[in-house]
């Protein structure tokens, strides 16, 4: 039974697909350390309000910029790893654009590596024992190699009657006593 377009849209709205992103945010350093931490906590709150979860936060790193951004020569870099539905990204971008303390930001979509496991068949060689038989293999006088190859001897099967076994057993027991 095929689903109509409306049903597909409704099921997608009910279970939004969460995607993992890394966000790089460049903040003004004119603010002191507690103010930067406050800005980061506000950004985290906005992400969680939109249905996202924060996996990792790398604290602010102060750097001198290669060129001025909004008349700032230095800035603080903050990196967040988040998991959020794709539709909420636009709302976060809008929020970050409205913040005066945010100089730049960049969203990077992270792909999760899929590991493929291959089954490996291991072939084992038959066990060999050393005997007096030697086989010489050589390709020339310099490459003379002696190897010993074991060839198992076949076991001879002989049928013995029960009476013969009893006699042999009696002989062994009498010899021990």
UniProtKB/TrEMBL annotation:
- Name the Gene3D superfamilies on file: 3.30.70.60
Q: Which GO terms describe its cellular component?
A: ribonucleoprotein complex; ribosome
Where does the source fall among the domains of life?
A: Bacteria
Does Mitochondrion show up as a keyword for this record?
no
Q: Which Pfam families match?
A: Ribosomal_S6
Record key words, sorted: Ribonucleoprotein, Ribosomal protein, RNA-binding, rRNA-binding
Task: State the function annotated in the UniProt record.
Answer: Binds together with bS18 to 16S ribosomal RNA.
Q: What is this protein called?
A: Small ribosomal subunit protein bS6
Whose protein is this, by species? Answer: Candidatus Portnoybacteria bacterium CG_4_10_14_0_2_um_filter_39_11
- Gene of this entry: rpsF
